[in-house]
Every structure is written in structure tokens, then in C-alpha cells.
Amino acid sequence: MKALRGFDFGEMLLLIWIGMWLAGLVGWCMNLYKLVDICCEPTGWLLLRAIGLIVLPLGAIVGFF
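Above: the chain sequence. Below: its structure as C-alpha cells.
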């Protein structure tokens, strides 16, 4: 029987992919919350957050700021 030594390369890539997906989902949800919070203040952040609802990677990044 082979001793277990940890993750192989494929399992590590899957774990990293799931972590990045979850971080992106959390960032996008934070972006949505902050967009609703600053509803009627016309700023550059409002425009970026509104675009980030459609362009998901942008929304995930902007959500953390």
C-alpha cells in the first residue's frame, strides 16, 4: 500500500481553482452590497461597481476595495 504524502498536482490545481472561485464570488457579492449602499452618490466608484455587475472579474476585484 502506498503511503499518502499530500496532494498531487491535479488535486492542488483543483483546490486553487475552487479557492479563487470562492474569493471571486465573495468579492462580487461585496461589490453588489457596496453598490446598493452608495446608491445615489454619483462617483467613479458607482460607475465601476455598476459595470462590475456585468463584467464579473471586474466586480470581484472592485468588491474588495
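Residues 7 and 21 are 19 Å apart (CA to CA).
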